[in-house]
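User: Hello, can you help with two protein structures?

Assistant: Certainly.
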Amino acid sequence: MSQSIWTVTTLVRFIKKHLEAESSIQSVAVQGEISNFTAHRSGHWYFTLKDNQSRCSCVMFAAAASKVSLLPKDGDQVIVVGSVSVFEASGQLQLYVNRLIPQGLGALYAKLEALKKKLSLAGLFDEQRKMPLPSYPESMGVITSKNTAAYQDVMSTLKRRWPLASIMHYHSAVQGEGSVEQLVEALNAADNNSHDVILLVRGGGSIEDLWSFNEEAVVMAVSRCKTPIITGVGHQSDVTLVDFVADVRAPTPTGAAELATPDQNEVRSVLMKSYNLLNNRITSLIIDKNRQLGQLRNHRYLIDPYRLLGEYQLSLSFVYQQFDKQQLRIARYHKLVDDYRKLLVQHSRNRVDINQIRIDKLQVHMKHQLLLHIERNSDKIKLRRQLLESLSPLAVLNRGYAITYQQAQLITSIHQLDKDEELTIRYADGSAQARILHIKESDHGKTNL
């Protein structure tokens, strides 16, 4: 076979890998009816989610199942949120559920997801908008209902950890009618009081109990605050929209108080270590300086100050001696340079006189040799001129000969002549034009008319 053969494990793992790489089904909300529900003693839930045509195996691990307030049962209509994968041992497609919402809350959950998407697109959840928390806050605002355990936990934690800070409480209902308006008013008031940090907290509850912290007005009020805000709404598993827009989200109200403050015991320990380190360094520095002071007290210059003056005078005297020696050496160099300069001038003058006499003698000798050369070559020139004149065509013409041209061509044979063209005959003293009447070849040739 040309195609490759896979093992079952390889195939299942391939399918699982590609399913888990598909981001669109790694956080998916699915609606259906629960059947075959089993609550294992380990705390895990196993059930099937089905509709009229299909069914899907579901697993909800103990950590997620413990957050569901009511135990589901077969026949319940629910919305589950989770990720899709494959269980390798059985090769079965499974939905790993991390949130289970009864059908009655489906519309509320859909509203929450729509508002979350809208606010996210508006940039309210962007990390660059978040402000850092102060390391050592001096003033803090706490927004929550006063008659709650969350308020007591936060206040006791703040006072225990960082009693140096002043704390102002802003009472607001945290659920029910009027809670949204009160939360917005409390946020605006706290932000205008120049606190270093604001804590927005409440205890745990159902999604309906926490819904005020999902309202757009409250989320927008948090986003407008110029003061860093820490949210601690519900338990660790509860997440509301204010958590996304706040600068820091804490898992619980107590956790918010802990994130807002340093531990005074840790700060005191650090300060004590710094104090001890500084004290040790100062003590060591004092000991070292005392040792140096003791050495200086026994220094010979402090015991006998005039000794230092004497050493300086001795050094100065030595410098003067060296200076005098250098002055004498410089004077000798100056005299030596003058002597060399005079000797050089005298020597140069002598060389110039000698070379001038030599040049004069050479000029006389050169003139004499030039005249002899001219005389020797004059006779040669005269003989060569006579030879050239004897060989010149003009000399031949002077003896009665002539040169014939036809159409500027020198005629040396009668075969070159053209009877129809005129001739130019050159003599020693001029030239003449002539026309051919008859052509006769010599006896040893033929006549050409």
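That covers the first. Now for the second protein you mentioned:
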Amino acid sequence: MKSIYDFELSELTELMENNGFKKYNATQIFQWLYRQKVSSFDEMTNISVKLRDWLKENYTCEGLETLKLQVSRDGTRKYLFRLHDGSSIESVLMHYDYGDTICVTSQVGCNMGCTFCASGLLKKQRDLTSGEMTLQVLEVQKDVEKMGVRVSHIVVMGTGEPFDNYDNVLAFCRTVNHDLGLGIGARHITISTCGLVNGIRRFADEHVQYNLAISLHAPNNEIRSRIMPVNRRYPIEQLMDALKYYCEKNNRRLSFEYILLKGVNDTDECVSQLIELTKPFDVYVNLIPYNTVDEHGYVSTDYKTAMELYNKLMKNNVRCTLRQKHGEDIDAACGQLRSKYERGKI
């Protein structure tokens, strides 16, 4: 049975009209779901019994089951959710000075095969629907609002490649951004891609205000192809061309995500190449300490070296930040908690 959360407001309006109900019923239902955060159609008390019964017969209003919640000393909250088909996914809530950010998963498993990432330990089973992504935000918000916390930012950087599930990810963004939905500002929503060139070009033509982040992680083809198989299909030259196209179409700043792997991508040569790569763009580089994944064997760059790298970028007019570690005392790496659960280790 299809979830009511899979409908955008425009689709819900069409559904009402096509089935003999009033156009305004769509707005009522939408507000019950996202403003009142109800968990059943029976709680929608300002719509008719006839409509409520019809909704119950044809759609589900179920949320996600929380299988496990890990809370770090730094306040990071990691959720393992069960979907309606029994699949499991992760979401993470992190606190920053500018607000509370949820990292949303877009696929069950991942086929991108990045050699440092726990997400790829379990291969892709299917795409998430837009409703399953929206429910991650809703479930986390319901959990933390009793503590006076509001989810203010969204990053689609969890398990999966968002541009490999393009239509559902964009539908999700429209719902959580909608004034009658969760009302999260477009500029507070970031979509991250490992470099699917066709998706970047398609996204450029949308002319939306959502932020675009690129999981770069290496400044040359030799290293990037070794740690990110996607680079063998879309080498850095093609990726940079697609990003130039995006920048021509949109007056938006890019973000380059750069995980620091000791002895792999943190050398002086890599820093110099990264500086050259950034020159054509209005870009912000996020230097990310690596959360160890036992199965992969990589080690994070030490703090002293990371600061030297940061200082060199800043001296060369590359705006960047050295991200603080989140959830170091829990299964912080993306996909790590789910992998342990699916393998029966927790």
